[in-house]
Amino acid sequence: MAGNIWVLTEQWRGEVSEITYEVLALGSEVAAALGVKLEAVLLGHKVKSLVARLGKADAVLYVDHAALAEPTAEAQSAALAQLIKEKQPRSVLIPLTNVTLGVGTLIAAQLELPGVNFCKDLRVVDGRLQAHCVLYGGKMEVLVTGLREPAILGISPGTRPAEKGQEAGTPVIEEVAVALPEVPSVRFKKYIEPEAGGVDITKQDVLVAVGRGIQTQDNVALAEELAEALGGAVCGSRPVIDQGWLPLSRQVGKSGAIVKPKLYLAAGISGAPEHVEGMKNAALIIAINMDPDAPIFNLAHYGIAGDALEILPALTEEVRRTSKKKAG
Amino acid sequence: MNIHVLLKMVPDVVEELEIAADGKSLAPESLRMILSESDGHALEEALLLKERYGGQVTVLALDSPELDDVLFTSLAKGADRAVKVTGVETGLTSRRAARILSQVIAATDGLMPADLLLTGTQAIDDLDGLVGPLVAHFLRLPFVAIVVQVGVDAATGTATVVKEYPGGVRGEFEVRLPAVLGIQAAEKPPRYVPVAKVRAVAKSRRIESLPAPSQLEPPLVEVLQMMKPEVAGHAEMLEGPVEKISEKVCEILAERGLV
Amino acid sequence: MIPTTAKFGPVPGWAILYLVFLVAVGLFAWRVVFLVRLLRLGGPENRVDRVPERLKRVLVYVFGQRRLFDEPLVGIPHLLIFYGFVVFLLTTTGMLFQGLLPWFHLPTAEGNAYLAPVVDIFAVLVLGGLAVSSFRRFVIRPAGLQLTWDATLVNALIASLMVTYLLAEGFRLVALPGEKAIWLPAGGLLAGWIAKSATLSASALASYQVFWWAHVLIVLFFLAYLPYSKHLHLLAAPFSVFFSRLDPPGRLPAPARAEILGAERLQEFTWRQLLSAFACAECGRCERACPSNQCGEPCSPRQLIHKLKEQLLGYGPALLDKVRAPAGGEEPALISGLIAPAELWTCATCLACVERCPVFNEHLSIMVDLRRRLVERGEVDPRLEEALRNLTRYGNSFGQSERKRTAWTQGLDFKPKDARREQVEWLWYLGEYACYHPALQGVTRTLARVLRLAEVDYGILYEAERNAGNDSRRVGEEGLFDLLREKNTAALQGARFNNLFSTDPHVYNTLKNEYQELNHGRHPVYHYAELLADLLDRGRLKAARRLHYRVTYHDPCYLGRYNGVYEAPRGVLRALGVELKEMRRSRRNSFCCGGGGGRVWMEETGEARARPSESRVQEAVSLDGVETLVVACPKDYVMFSDALKTTGLEGRLAVRDLTELVAEALGLAPDVAVAAPPRQRAA
After folding, report:
1. Residue C520 — very low, low, confident or very high, per pLDDT cuts 50/70/90?
2. Which label site among A16, A85, A252, C495 has the fewest CB atoms less than 10 Å from its CB?
3. Is the ipTM reported for this complex over the cut 0.90?
4. Are residues A232 and A130 in the same domain?
5. CA–CA separation, C7 vs C5, rounded Å?
6. Which chain B residues are within 8 Å of A187, Cβ to Cβ?
7. Are A17 and A153 within one domain?
8. Are residues A275 and A317 in the same domain?
């Protein structure tokens, strides 16, 4: 068990998140390059059934404790730290999401180990693990390495295709006990669900997304018209939800929904990493933005450097005309 | 209530970032520093809590270019004390920054005990860790990240905080105070304070300077190289008058059966 | 026979007159003193300098009534009523004193062979004027002119004064024909009709007395009522004109005290600002001229003054009492009380209201002071906040790096001189729009080439140039303005140049009027149209061909109304051979594009029917055969280009900068067209 590559399973509300599979795929490559095993760590309470999803790993370390029922960074890091001390892995890969934010840093601090964030790739060079990380919102990248082992590596979404990490199987399960404080200093109370927006944007084939570039709440109507013409729904980036122009249930991004529609039309969205996380796997991405240098154009399939307020209505008209022609 | 806000200056990405001659760090010539965005929210949340519950707000930061203006602005917005830790070098070490801040907080009269320590949940240069959980660990305090709402119950010495999860879901937690909170967004957007007020404060108020403790943290992470991101791809740009563009888009959509 | 000699029971007429006279004068004086005390609540301001200039103003604008002739339909009647008032003031005073002192034979107008006919004719003219103005007020009902009981009463009082005078005259002529024959056209006519009726003639003496008394009592009633009505402007206007601002309008007053940012409480305004409330005749001229108001936005200069007056009369007395009894209620907030913030933010600072106001009220300074208070409280909308933060940090509202300020030069095949390093004749202060805005960078390059062709020795400040601060100041961020001015002044002092010109009228305005170090003629400041006009005039630029366009020209607010530069751009157009057709709203009546005063940084309220810029392009396109709207301001360029799109007029009208026409006439190849005009960068 010593010297293996570990992947922390992000398990939340009974589901294994997609990013976990991405990190498993990455982890398995690294493990193979180092000639060691890939082990998944599953923390939770009564979630043993999820082990079946982790077939990509050679083994699963399963920790069951009441305090891990709802994830707090403290409980997770305390549990994982004990495991690490006991088992001495080579490196620990932690998917970076809202659920796990802070866990990696806490463990690294507690065990005085190197912690690295924002990894977009890992590679093995001369038997050493190097992390390729993104800094300054995507403006620079660095190649780093840890000076001690194990290194705790925070992995950003999108490193590998999730399918590569999904393998049905029956990995070896080891149940490990940990000691966690009876009375945690951070106690989970309840979930607050977003108001049902009537529409589940994760199930839509067509999404018209709006960002700050549409300027005012009234202009959301332009997007709604286009969405209607295309038979889809409207969603938005964080600033638009923060302003109250759309309900929380329509937020796409790191703190919102991850969507994979057939068409994602982004109007007035610059393409900040937190938003991109939520929509990068859409089949067809068309972006409209005033700024020809906006990062969204690096991701989109087609781009229009112009004023969304002009283009949306023109597009709506054209779509309606084309649909009529087809129908009539 | 005694609230501390930990601020950090990060590179301003409005400027073009260049790589220094050593190939591993940012060239200082084109660099300008700006307050980390979520730290600004942390300050606003602290000021809102002060308005609601009373008490004192202290802002702390490690010395950096353009920091003084940020500290004076914080005072002008309503903070009571501004503390700057001097004698530190700039670098990619969030862990070192957190260690120094924690030592200063622990060692300085009047800074502990605090009820709440707020900081931004994450900064764009947090390569080797997030300041919030690091400070929480060094000061042996509980920590919650991605907080968007804070309520304090002085009687029980706890705070109720709301944290963001994916999919628009939020979680409510109860934290024993004192605690460290990583703020994602304040309950109201950060307030505006006019330039005249900041300048008046710069003339009339003092920033306290404290020297950084001398013990050095051994590095745990080594930067081997810094490089500009290669752009993986680029969209095919559609140009021309609006009508032509709309037609082309409809063609593309029709090809895929979307219209 | 003097009517007050008659007795009413045991009491002689003159005694009753004395009583009424004393009461009326007493009420009048008491009220006027009270109003002056209210004015003294305001802060101090020196408006007694340069007295000869001030007297000249009173002569031209009060006695000459100059501003009223903007609207001749009311200008002429008002002139008649005004002079009628002056004439009657003398006449009626004579009558009064004759009535009070019937034992003395005082010289009166009635008795004077030359004056009496004048008064007589004026009475008719005033009635004629009143008829026209009443028709206008009650039937035509122009915007901004309200139908109030006060206005109706005042009109009725004036009319009744004229009627009673004429009737008194007529009956007197019939009753007392013995008086020496003075030619009284109207009175005589009336007398003729009365004489024809036996009943009327019989009671002529009694009727004369009745109408005499009626006239005098109405006058005394009017005297007492005057300081309570809007007719107060009669008293206050000469003072408000005398004490008006002599500084150029492009120089906004700095706050009186550095610690107090702006004004909201009554005592934070100056006495002259408060005087605006009393001088206002509620004529509505300002409102009719206001582009924001005319388009349906909540902005109204008239309402602003009116609400200040309401606040002053409503809470002022309590403030006066406080001096004696400190305990009392809090002054109700003016902003978000009587005045909604939207009313303040929708002003484009175009100066049309100030320019039109016949009593020289100071709508703009009051509005900016209120904005200063909103900024002080941090109550600014998010888009404006972003612009202010960008200005503070990067010296431009676009939020782009200072280093990108000269990105526009990349399309040039030469490098403009750096005025920081070498001496130049002309310093070209570009302004942020010319440097950063993609739609304008081409125009900027074109001007650079034109000037080079004319061998003008010019240089720029490169990255040291920052936003000059004109609009930051007008938005109410005085501290930001100070900061920008300090930095720019330091940059200018580090550069070596003789004269300065700018492509942006906003920049031009503030450098010329508000940058003291540049003033005193050491570094004269010009607008580029003036420079181009001069070059064309002196043959340094020669049009290779005449441009056969039919164009119209939009006078920018900050170039025209604010600084009186109307001829230079027209001179340029003439030299190019274009045919210029003027819009109705041109020169000092130019209709603002709606982008000034920081409006380009703000959300629209959504309440407007149309934007001012849309109204303006509609006006341009309505001129027969005009296909080009020529502008000389970058904000106009952007605002009108946008308006062409939103009104669908893109094919029918083109917006072109003066520079572009000059370049075309010189045979220069047009600059590469740049991308679609952006508003702010999206997040």
Report:
1. low
2. A85
3. yes
4. no
5. 6
6. 173-175
7. yes
8. yes
State which residues form the domain around A264: 201-327
Kind of pairing between the strands at A128-135 and A115-125: antiparallel
Number of domains composing chain A: 2
CB neighbourhood size of C62 (10 A)? 20
The CATH number of the domain where A29 resides is what?
Answer: 3.40.50.620
Asked if A34 and A130 sit in the same domain, the reply is yes
Asked whether residue A154 is domain-assigned, the answer is yes
Considering the domain boundaries, does residue A214 fall inside one? yes
Residue from B192, B198, B243 whose CB has the most chain C CBs within 10 Å, to mutate: B192
Low-confidence ranges of chain A (pLDDT < 50): 1
Domains in chain C, please, with CATH?
3-241 (no CATH), 251-376 (1.10.1060), 383-666 (no CATH)
CA distance C647 to chain B (A): 15
> Between B185, B229, B235, which is nearest A138 by CB?
B229
Residues A151 and A11 in one domain: yes
At C487 the three-state DSSP class reads helix
Q: Which residues contact B19 (CB under 8 A, 6 or more apart)?
A: A140, B25, B26, B27, B226, B227, B228
Q: Which of A132, A159, A176 is the last residue of a domain?
A: A176
Residue-wise pLDDT tens digits, C540-591: 998 888 888 999 999 999 999 999 999 999 999 999 999 999 999 999 999 9
Contacts of B167 in chain A (CB under 8 A): 194, 202, 256-258
Q: How far is it, in rounded angstroms, from Cα C350 to Cα C509?
A: 12
* N-terminal to C-terminal alpha carbon distance within chain C: 88
In chain B, positions 106-145, which contact chain C (CB-CB < 8 Å)? Answer: none
- Give the separation between CA A169 and CA C250, rounded to whole angstroms: 79
Q: Which of A161, A176, A191 is the last residue of a domain?
A: A176
Q: A284 is written with which tokens?
A: 């067809």
**Residue A184 counted as domain residue:** no
Residue A183 included in any domain: no
Query: Taken in order C321, C327, C328, C334, is the CA torsion positive or negative?
Result: positive
Q: Per-residue confidence at C679, pLDDT binned at 50, 70, 90?
A: very low
Interface of B with A in 227-246 (CB under 8 A): 227-229, 231-239, 242-243, 245-246
Measured in degrees and rounded to the nearest 5, phi and psi for residue C420 equal -75, -25
Q: Residue C678: what pLDDT? A: 32
**Chain C residues whose C-beta sits inside 8 Å of any chain B C-beta:** 258-259, 261, 375-376, 378, 380, 382, 385, 388-389, 392-394, 399-401, 403, 477-480, 482-483
Q: Residue A313: closest CA among chain C residues belongs to which residue?
A: C646
Same domain? A57 vs A147? yes
Interface residue A169 vs chain B (CB under 8 A): no
The pTM is what? 0.90
Per-residue pLDDT tens over the stretch B161-218: 999 998 888 999 999 999 999 999 999 999 999 999 999 999 999 999 999 887 677 7
Q: Do A171 and A264 belong together in one domain?
A: no
B2-211: in CATH 2.40.50.140 = no
Q: Is B69 on the interface with C (CB under 8 A)?
A: no
Per-residue pLDDT of C462-514, as tens digits, reads 999 999 999 999 999 999 999 999 999 999 999 999 999 999 999 999 999 99
Q: Is B194 in Cβ contact with C375 (below 8 Å)? A: yes
Residue-wise pLDDT for C303-317, tens only, equals: 999 999 999 999 999
| Residue A241 in contact with partner chain C when CB distance is under 8 A | no
Q: Is C646 on the interface with A (CB under 8 A)?
A: no
Contacts of C480 in chain B (CB under 8 A): 194-195
Whether C327 has a pLDDT exceeding 60, the answer reads: no
Does a cis peptide bond (omega within 30 degrees of 0) precede residue B113? yes
- Check residue C418 and give its pLDDT: 96
Closest CA to A268 of A307, A211, A223: A211
Chain C residue with CA closest to B193: the answer is C378
- Under an 8 A CB cutoff, do A187 and B129 touch? no
Query: Residue C191, CB half-sphere, CA atoms under 13 Å: how many?
Result: 22
Query: In terms of domains, do A141 and A220 share one?
Result: no
User: Is the Cβ pair A212, C678 closer than 8 Å?
Assistant: no
CB proximity under 8 Å: B 53-112 to A: 92, 95
C376–B15: do the CB atoms touch at under 8 Å?
Answer: no
